[in-house]
């Protein structure tokens, strides 16, 4: 569903991405791994339309979205689960879920969301400001599913969360995968990455230098990250 070829990006005079190729199929979970400064965040920001790509193409569901601004990419079905989670603190959980417009007929209903995320059902009337980190992450994922996004782009969904919450997020990602939604996530937690993803792109200095399976990633963790 996502096909990226030759993506290039710059910050001023400095080139951050040197021709990156990425593919994500329906129902596939793929991670971007690599050391700090490798270009993971820049890549995701280019894909969602928040950083200008200087070259290459981004094709999504067979359509060239390279020149579309962020809101039109979102409308095309590319859902961004933000790293600061983008929750409206003054709104309740339910209001946060109802706010974003639907972008496809695959939008999850509130009922389905509450079934998959019982914590959100319990806290539906609580204001965004009172949520824990794990609850915020679940709300951010649920909100993207509520729009009917066909692909979720995530920036370190496990970051700063307790192991039990990380395990729950992992289970949710596997459930999402089973519905045919694609997921592309930045992930530095190798254990987590290897339990949720099908494969891993290793970035180094703005290039994809290898594609790894779970066994490779586990074995080479120390050397790679
Ligand atoms: P991290 O995990 O630290 O976020 P990353 O793999 O996501 O690392 P990027 O943040 O995409 O890497 O950075 C890629 C390159 O672009 C690095 O060399 C970085 O210094 C540079 N860079 C990132 N953001 C900016 C910016 N706002 N201005 C200038 N250079 C930047």
Automatic annotation (TrEMBL):
<dbReference type="Pfam" id="PF00005">
    <property type="entry name" value="ABC_tran"/>
</dbReference>
<dbReference type="InterPro" id="IPR017871">
    <property type="entry name" value="ABC_transporter-like_CS"/>
</dbReference>
<comment type="similarity">
    <text>Belongs to the ABC transporter superfamily.</text>
</comment>
<feature type="domain" description="ABC transporter">
    <location>
        <begin position="2"/>
        <end position="225"/>
    </location>
</feature>
<dbReference type="InterPro" id="IPR003439">
    <property type="entry name" value="ABC_transporter-like_ATP-bd"/>
</dbReference>
<dbReference type="GO" id="GO:0005524">
    <property type="term" value="F:ATP binding"/>
</dbReference>
<keyword id="KW-0547">Nucleotide-binding</keyword>
<protein>
    <submittedName>
        <fullName>ABC transporter ATP-binding protein</fullName>
    </submittedName>
</protein>
<keyword id="KW-0029">Amino-acid transport</keyword>
<dbReference type="InterPro" id="IPR027417">
    <property type="entry name" value="P-loop_NTPase"/>
</dbReference>
<keyword id="KW-0067">ATP-binding</keyword>
<dbReference type="InterPro" id="IPR003593">
    <property type="entry name" value="AAA+_ATPase"/>
</dbReference>
<dbReference type="InterPro" id="IPR052156">
    <property type="entry name" value="BCAA_Transport_ATP-bd_LivF"/>
</dbReference>
<keyword id="KW-0813">Transport</keyword>
């Amino acid at each position: 569903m996502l096909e990226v070829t030759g993506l290039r990006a710059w910050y001023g005079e400095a080139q951050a991405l040197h021709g990156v190729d990425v593919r994500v199929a329906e129902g596939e979970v793929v991670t971007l791994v690599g050391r700090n400064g490798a270009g993971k965040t820049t890549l995701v920001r280019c894909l969602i339309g928040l950083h200008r790509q200087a070259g290459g193409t981004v094709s999504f569901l067979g359509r060239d979205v390279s020149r579309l601004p962020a809101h039109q990419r979102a409308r095309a079905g590319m859902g961004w689960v933000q790293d600061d989670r983008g929750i409206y603190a003054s709104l309740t959980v339910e209001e946060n879920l109802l706010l974003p417009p639907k972008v496809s007929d695959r939008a999850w209903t509130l009922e389905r969301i509450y079934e998959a995320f019982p914590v959100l059902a319990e806290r539906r009337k609580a204001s965004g400001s009172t949520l824990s980190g794990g609850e915020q992450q679940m709300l951010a994922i649920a909100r993207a599913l509520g729009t009917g996004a066909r692909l979720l782009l995530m920036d370190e969904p496990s970051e700063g969360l307790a192991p039990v919450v990380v395990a729950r997020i992992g289970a949710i990602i596997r459930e999402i995968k089973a519905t045919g939604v694609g997921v592309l996530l930045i992930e530095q937690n190798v254990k987590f990455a290897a339990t949720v993803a099908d494969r891993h792109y290793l970035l180094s200095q703005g290039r994809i230098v290898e594609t790894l399976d779970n066994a490779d990633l586990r074995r080479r963790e120390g050397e790679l990250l």
